[in-house]
Amino acid sequence: MSSAPEGMRRVLGLAGSLRRGSYNRRLLDAAVELAPAPLVVVPYDDAVALPLFDEDLEGPEGGPEAVQRLRRAVAGADALLIATPEYNQSLPGGLKNMLDWLSRPAPDEVLEGKPVSVIGASTGPWGTRLAQSSLRQVLHATGAHVLPGPALYLREAARMFDAAGHLVDEATRERLRTVLASLAGWLRLH
User: Fold this and answer.
1) Partners of 81 in the beta sheet?
2) What is the pTM of this model?
3) Residues sharing a CB contact under 8 Å with residue 50, sequence separation 6 or more, in sequence order
4) Cα four-point dihedral sign 63, 64, 67, 68
5) Minimal CA–CA distance to 28: which of 166, 174, 168?
6) Chain centroid to CA 117
């Protein structure tokens, strides 16, 4: 069930970095601004509250309250937009932890069949190709429906944002618009 206005499609944005001012969070903020109708992008801001995945904490409700809030947010979204940095040539542990909690069946499957688009930003010269590849593999294992393309592997992210955190590189803004338009089409197929 979506909480977006009538006819609109709610896309939950998940940042792979837990740092509030991260470039991936800024990329999600740009997606909020650039999302075409009928998409409404809503970043999730409480990932830092998630405990490390532990089956002993799971229980029939699906885990502690922080986990239940995340699961409700994902269940209530029409799609996910995940922005990941690249840590040591892979996805960050915080994002993997989030997906481990979300992949559990109790009380309901929330990732299976969920349309997902993957983007990412890195300060390094190589972008986030390896992290996104790892992330796609994990999402495939959960049964999520991952948009195959187009890709956005933002490198040297510090040059792409101004001091206030706004995405100012016009070529990147256009690539993000293209990803979001493709996600809107992906939603129509699912």
Assistant:
1) 13, 117
2) 0.95
3) 66, 67, 70, 94, 97, 98, 101
4) positive
5) 166
6) 7
Q: What gap in Å lies between CA 31 and CA 40, rounded to an integer?
A: 9
DSSP state of 60: T
For residue 124, give the DSSP letter. S
Domain boundaries, the chain: 9-189
Beta bridge partners of 79: 11
Q: Which CATH superfamily is domain 9-189 in?
A: Flavodoxin domain (3.40.50.360)
pLDDT of residue 1: 44
4-46: per-residue pLDDT in tens?
667 899 999 999 999 989 999 999 999 999 999 999 999 999 9
The CA-atom distances, in angstroms, between 118 and each of 68, 92, 136, 145, 148 are: 23, 14, 8, 11, 9
Instruction: Specify the 3-state DSSP secondary structure of 49.
Output: helix
Q: Are strands 115-121 and 39-43 parallel, antiparallel or unpaired?
A: unpaired
User: Do 27 and 45 contact (CB within 8 A), yes or no?
Assistant: no
Which of 54, 133, 49 shows the shortest CA–CA distance to 91?
133
Q: What are the structure tokens assigned to 124, written together?
A: 């390094």
Residue appearing with tokens 């948009």:
147
Closest Cα to residue 13, out of 62, 49, 47, 36?
47
Structure tokens at 164: 């206030």
